[in-house]
Amino acid sequence: MARPAEIAAGFAYTLRGEGIAVPATAVANFHEALGVVGIDSKASVYWAGRATLITRPESFDTYDRCFDRFWLARTKMVEAKTSIPSTMLIVTDDLEDPASQEEDAEYQEVTFDQVLALRYSEKEVLRDQDFSKMNREELVIAMRMIQLFRWSPPLRSSFRRVANPKGNRVDLRKTIRKSLSAGGEATVPEMMDRTFKRRKVVFLCDVSGSMEPYSRPLLHLAHSAVLGAQRVEVFTMATRLTRITRQLQSKDPERALKDASEKVVDFSGGTRLGELIKSFNDHFAIRGMARRAIVVISSDGWDRGDPEVMSREMQRLHRVAHKVIWINPLKAMPGYAPLARGMAAALPYIDSFLEGHSVAALEALVKEISK
Fold this sequence. Notes:
Layout: H1 4-17, H2 24-37, H3 42-53, H4 60-80, E1 87-89, H5 98-103, E2 109-111, H6 122-127, H7 136-147, E3 155-163, E4 169-170, H8 172-181, E5 191-198, E6 201-206, H9 212-228, E7 232-237, E8 241-243, H10 253-263, H11 273-289, E9 294-298, H12 307-320, E10 323-327, H13 341-346, E11 352-354, H14 359-370
Parallel strand pairs: 6-7, 6-9, 9-10, 10-11
Antiparallel strand pairs: 1-2, 3-5, 4-5, 7-8
C-alpha cells in the first residue's frame, strides 16, 4: 500500500500538471495532515488535501476533477495488487568473469527485505508493446496507464476582455464612470486585457472492423481526456457518426465505455470516412465545434467511399481547425506507406501524422496536443 508521503507527492504532481501552483510547504502540510486523518477514508483525504493544497476558490473544480482521477487510479491499483512472496528467486544479467560464474552456478534464494533494486518493470515493457499483441491482463494494465495521462491543452486568447491593471486597452466605460463618481475629475484610466482559455480537443475515433484491436484503447484515451481536460468532444465513426461525449463523463472507465458501446451500434462495421467527416463538418465543425480547436482523428485510413470526398472534407476541416492530428496504428509497421485511398487523400491536410499502436505512442499524442 502506498505511504502517505508517496500519496502527498503524487497528488501534488497531478495538481501541478493541471496548472495549480502547489508549493513544497503545502505538500509538507498535506503529508502531515494525512498522518493524522489516515489514508483509508476518501472523504478525509479529500478535505485534508483541499485544506492544505488549495488557496484559491476558482481552483476547486480542477481539484475535484484531479482528486477523483487520482483516488480512482489508486483504488484500482490497490485492488489489483498481489501479495509479495517472502522469498524471491533472483536471476541477474551481470557480465562476470568465468570463475565468478562457476562459484555462483547454483541459484540462491534471498529474502525480500534484502532486495534493494529491481531490474524489470512490467509497465515499462508494456509501454512499447502493440495493443493487438497484448493478452487480456496486459490490456487491463495498459488501460490503467492510459487513465493516468496528464492533459494540458494549450491556451488561446479569448475575444472577451476583463479588467487588468496591466492590460493594453483602456476600458472607456469604467473609466468614465469612475471619473463621474469623482465629480468629473480626471482619474487613472481603467485597463483591460484579453483572457485565455484552453483549446477545445475533438476526437474522431474509427471503430470499424479494421481498427478493432485499437478501438478500446483509443476510447480509453478519449475518456481520460474527457475527465482530464475541460473542453473535449468525442465521436465514433464506422458506418455512421455518433457523439458519445456525455457517455464518457462517468468517472469509472468501465462504466463509461459500457455506456458508450450501448449507444454506438456500428462497432466493427464498415468504414465511410469521407462521408462521416463531411457529416461532422456540416453539423458540428463549421458551426463552431472545430473552430480554433485541435482535432484528433484515429483511423487506419481504409475508406470504402470516394477519395475526392475525403480530400474535399479534410480541406474544409483543416481550414477551421487550429491543428489536425491523425494517429494511425499501422504507421508503426516496418515498411508502412500511406497507400490506402482515404489515407492518401487526407495526408496533405494533416498537421501531425503519428502512430497509435501502444501506450508510448498515445503518450506522444498527448504531448503533441499540449504543444
